[in-house]
Amino acid sequence: MTRFIAALDQGTTSTRFVVIDEAGEIRAFDQREHAQIYPRPGWVEHDAAEIWRNAQAVISGALAKAGLSPRDLAAVGVTNQRETSLLWDRATGAPLANAIVWMDTRTQPLVDRLTADGVGEGVRAKTGLPLATYFSALKLVWLLENIPGARATAERGEALFGTIDSWIVWNLTGGAAGGRHVTDATNASRTQLMNLTTLDWDDELLALFDIPRACLPDIRSSSDVYGDCTGALAGVPLAGALGDQHAALLGQACLAPGDAKNTYGTGCFLLMNTGEAPRASTRGLLTTLGYKLGDAKPVYALEGSVAIAGALVQWLRDNLGLIENSREIEALAQTVQDNGDVYFVPAFSGLYAPRWRGDARGIIAGLTRFSNKGHIARAALEAAAYQTREVLAAMEADTGVAIRELKVDGGMAANELLMQFQADILGAPVVRPRHLETTSLGAAYAAGLAVGFFKDVEDVAAHWRAAQRFEPAMAQEERARLIASWEKAVERSLGWTL
What is the 3-state composition of the chain as percent helix, strand, coil, each rounded to the nearest 5? Predict the structure, then answer.
C-alpha cells in the first residue's frame, strides 16, 4: 500500500520537495536556492529554466534520502510563489525571457496610466485586487509588448503564459510532449484576470489589458487530478496546486471563517478565511480565493501582503555582508537590549497592504552614533512584526472580528526573538505549529484529498499541532510608543519616487 504523499514547493528564493506520511509527518526533504536577477533598479527576475532544473534535482534528492521511488507516492501537489509570470514556447518548452517576479516594479507606468483612466474600481470589483505592480496581468502586458514576436505567438497559442505553478505542472506532465497547460483557481485569482464570482477568465478584463485568451491556461480546482507525471515522478498523479499562501491557509487548518495565519517568508502574507462568499475590503486588503477543493464550494479569504520580510534578512546578508548566514540574524539582534530607536522600513518595492504606496522606498530612520549593527539587525526583524500588525488591524476593522490568536509559519517563524516581539506588538498570542513547512503540507493535503489519501478536511485538520505559544508581555504604553515611532518612520519613506 502506498504510504506517502508529496509536494513540490517552488518559492521566491528556493525550490523544495517534501514527502509526508499518513500521519502528516515529514519523511524526506530537499531544497535548492536559485539566482535572484536584478537587471535594473526595481526589476526582479528569475530564470525559469533554472527553477525547473532545481525542481528535478530536489525531487530526486528527497526520494533518494528516503529510499523511495515514484511507486511509493500516492500523488504529488504543487505550490508556488504566486504572481511571478512568464511566457514560454509551446513547441520547445524554452522560456521567451526571464520570469518577472511578483515584487518587480517595472509596470508602475502602466499602473499610473490605468489609474488615470479611472478603471481601478471596476477591476477591483471583479477581481478583489487593486491596480498595482504586484499582480500578473500587467507583467504579461509588459512581456507581450517588449519581447519581439511575443504577442503574435501568444495570439496563436504558440506561446503559453503562466505563473510558476503552470510552468511546473506543464513540465511535470510532459512539457513539449503533451504537458497540461493549467492553473488552479487560487493562482488564477492573483493574475487580476479571473472573475472572483465565476472563477473563469473575464472577457472584459482580457479586453481591457489586451491579453489573448489563447495563451492562458485552463483554470482547475486546487484539489484535482491534472494528469500523470513523467520523468523523476513517472506515473505519479499530479493531483493539486495552490499558491503558496493559500496552501499555508490549508496547511494551518484555517478551515472556519475567522481563522487566520501569517506566513513569514520572502514577504509576509496574512490570510483570514471569510467563508463561501467574497468579502470586499475598505481598508486596503485584498479579496482573494482561499482554496477550492474538488467540487466543493470555493472558500474565500481576505489577505494583507507585505512585500519584504525574509528578503530583508537576505539583503543584509548579500548586499551589506552584515551576516554570513540568514540564521545569524537572531543572534546579532540579541546583542542589543532593544532597537535603540532605530526603525527599518523595507519599502524596496513600495509598500503593499494596507497602504499600497508604490512611491515609497526603503529607509533606516533614527540612527545616532550609539547605533550599531545589532540595532540594524533588530530593526530589520521588527519591521516584519510592525507591518504584520498594520495588516491585522485593517483585517479586524474590515471584518469586525478581533483575532484571538495568530497562527504563524514560514522560515522566519523559527526566530524566537521575532515571534515574541510579534506577540508583544499585537497584544495577542502567536501560535507556532509543530511543522513550519505548512505551505508544502497544504499542497500535499490538497493532492491527498483528490486521490483519497486523506478522507476529508477534518482528516487534514487532525494533523495540525501547536508547538509553542508566545504570549504578549509588553506594557501598553511601550507598545503605543513603538508603534508611533514606526508610523513616523513610514511617513519618511513615502513620496520618494515622485
Answer: 40, 25, 40
Q: What pLDDT does residue 403 have?
A: 83
The three-class DSSP label of residue 208 is: helix
Report the run of H or E that residue 243 belongs to, with start and end. strand 237-243
Look at residue 152 in the predicted model and tell me its pLDDT.
Answer: 97
Per the CB < 8 A criterion, the answer to whether 349 and 308 are in contact is yes
Q: Residue 354: CA atoms inside 13 Å, Cβ hemisphere, count? A: 20
The DSSP call for residue 232 is: G
H-helix or E-strand spanning residue 382: helix 373-399
User: What is the grid cell recorded at 14?
Assistant: 528556493
* 267 phi/psi in degrees, rounded to 5: -115, -170
User: Which pLDDT score is estimated for 436?
Assistant: 81
What is the DSSP code string of 443-477? HHHHHHHHHTSS-SHHHHHTT--EEEEE-----HH
Would you state the pLDDT for residue 463?
84
> Using only C-alpha atoms, what is the Rg of the chain?
21
| pLDDT of 266 | 85
Q: What letter does residue 212 receive in the DSSP assignment?
A: -
Residue 2 confidence (pLDDT): 64
Report the chain (498 residues): mean pLDDT per 10 consecutive residues.
88 94 88 95 96 97 94 96 96 97 94 94 93 95 96 97 98 96 97 96 97 97 96 96 94 89 90 90 91 94 90 93 92 96 94 89 96 96 96 90 88 94 96 88 94 89 89 96 97 89
- Contact (CB, 8 A) for 336 and 291: no
Which pLDDT does position 165 carry in this prediction? 97
Distance CA 317, CA 326 (A): 7
Cβ contact 43:205 at 8 Å: no
At residue 369, the 3 state secondary structure works out as: coil
- CB neighbours of residue 23 within 10 Å: 9
- In whole angstroms, give the CA distance from residue 33 to residue 56: 13
- DSSP E strands, 309-427: 343-345, 363-365, 406-409
Distance of CA 384 to the CA centre of its chain: 15
DSSP secondary structure letters along 67-80:
T--GGGEEEEEEEE
**CA 155 distance to own-chain centroid:** 29
Strands 182-184 and 218-220: parallel
